[in-house]
Amino acid sequence: MKDHENLNFESMCVHAGIDADEFGAVVPPIYQTSTFKFKSAQHGAALFSGEGKGHIYTRMSNPTIEAMEDSVAALEGGVKAMGCASGMAAINTVFATFLGAGSHVVCSQAVYGPTNTLLRTVYARFGVEISFVDTSNPEDVKAAMKENTRLVYVETPGNPTLAIADLAEIVKIAKEFGAKVCVDNTFMSPALQRPFEFGVDVIIHSMTKFLNGHADVVAGIVVAKEMSDYTLMKKVLNQTGGVIDPFNSFLVHRGIKTLAIRMEKHSENAQKVAEFLEKHEMVEWIKYPGLRSHPQYFTGLKQHKGHGGMITFELKGGYDAGEIMMNSVKLCQLAVSLGGVESLIQHPASMTHFSMGPDARKEAGITEGLVRLSVGIENHKDIIKDLERALYEVGEALTVKQEKNLFR
Ligand code: LCS
C-alpha cells in the first residue's frame, strides 16, 4: 500500500506520486533523458523481458513521468495511468485499444469537436460504426446499444453544452452489452467528479486544462481501473508513440498540488458569475451545473462535489451579439482552451467546434450564438465587472443596429 492511500483528497494533491530521491529532493527531479543505461547485458535483457525493475527508454517510461502518473491515478482512484502528449492522444489511445473493424462505439453528441471529428473521419474509415447520442438521456444510450458495441464514450459535463450524463445509469446499460465505459473527466477533474466510483472503466483528461491549470502545457492522460485494461492501452500508447515528455510531466505535477483549492475557487466564482448572467437582460439562456435551471441539475448534485468553472450561454442577438461581446471583454481573454487560472471566453461555432460542421453542431445543440466561458480564479467582482461592461456594449450596439433598420 502506498502512503498516499490513507490521505484526504487535498493532501493527495500535494503528496501523491512524490517520493524523495536519493538526495532527498522534495520535488521530483526532471529526468531529461531519452534513454537509461543498463548495469549489464543481463540487466538489459531482464528489463525487456519484464523481470527486472527500472526504466529502459522514455517512450516506454521515465521517473518524472511516472511520478505524475502515480499522482493522477491516486486522485482518480485508478490502478495506473499513462501520460500522453495531449488530450487527443489520450482519447486516441482509448479508441485504438477498444475499437476495430466491425465494432461499434456510442459517443456523447456534445463532445470536444475533434473527438467527434476523429471518430467520423478516421475511425469510420477503418470500419468502426459510430452512434452519437444525447448521453444526458440514458434511454437514448440504451436505444443505441448493439451486439457489437465495444465502447461507450461519455464526456460529462459535455463541451460546450454542459449536458450532464448519469454515469451510474450508463454503466448499468453498457455492462448488459459487455461494453467498456470511458469518461472524459476534463471539465470536472477528480476534485469534483470521480467516475470510477460509478463503475466506469477508463478515464481520460486533457491535462492541458484544470489538472495543470496554468495554460502553459498541452498534455493528456488515460487512467485505468483494472490492470488488464491498463496493460492493453499501455501497449497501444507505446506503439503509437503519443507520450508526454518529462518537462511537461513536471509542470503538470506541480499544477496538481493546487488542484483542490483551485477547483473550489473556480466553482465559487463561476456560481456568482452564472447567477449574474442568469439575471441579465441580454442573456437569452444560460447553462451552469450549479443553477437550478440546468436540465440535469439533480444528476449533477448526485455526481459532483462542486459545480466547476465552465459556463455556457446564449446572448440575445445571436452570432452578432457574441462577436461584439468577445471583442469587448478585457479581463476575460478571447482564447480557446479552458481550466486555467485566467478567465477565457470563446465562440464554439467558429472556433473549438468549427470542425464538426453545422449539421453535427445543430444535432449536438451547439447554437451559432453560444458563448463559452471558463471562469478563472481572479476576484469574481472583476470578472463580473468585465462581463457587465461588455454586455452593456452589446446592448448599445444592438440598439444602434435596430434604430438604423427602423430609419432605412
Ligand atoms: N477533452 C475535452 C473535454 C477538451 O475540452 C479538450 C480540448 C480535449 C479533450 C483535447 O485535449 P487537448 O488535446 O487539446 O489537450 N479542448 C479545448 C477547448 O475546448 N478549447 O481548446 C482546446
Describe the model.
The protein has 408 residues and is of the alpha/beta class. It has 14 helices and 12 strands. It has helices at residues 9-15, 41-49, 63-76, 87-98, 113-123, 138-144, 167-176, 227-240, 246-256, 259-279, 297-303, 318-328, 357-363, 380-406, and strands spanning 80-84, 104-108, 129-133, 149-155, 180-184, 202-206, 220-224, 283-287, 310-315, 333-334, 344-346, 370-374. It has a 7-stranded mixed beta sheet with strand order 1-7-6-5-4-2-3, with helices on both faces. A 5-stranded mixed beta sheet has the order 8-9-12-11-10. Helix 12 packs across helix 14. The model has no long low-confidence stretch (mean pLDDT 95). The site of ligand LCS has 17 residues, from helix 4. Residues 86-88, 112, 155, 159, 184, 186-187, 206, 208, 218, 220, 336-338, 352 line the site of ligand LCS.
Which tags fit this structure?
12 strands, alpha/beta, single chain, 14 helices, globular, 5-stranded mixed beta sheet, Aspartate Aminotransferase, domain 1, 408 residues, binds ligand LCS, 7-stranded mixed beta sheet
- How many beta-strand elements? 12
Q: Return the CATH topology of the domain at 259-406.
A: Aspartate Aminotransferase, domain 1
Spans of 5+ residues with little confidence (pLDDT < 50)? none
What's the shape?
A: globular
| CATH class category of the domain at 259-406 | Alpha Beta
User: What's the number of helices?
Assistant: 14
The main pleated sheet reads as: 7 strands, mixed
The averaged pLDDT comes out at: 95
- Give me the secondary-structure category: alpha/beta
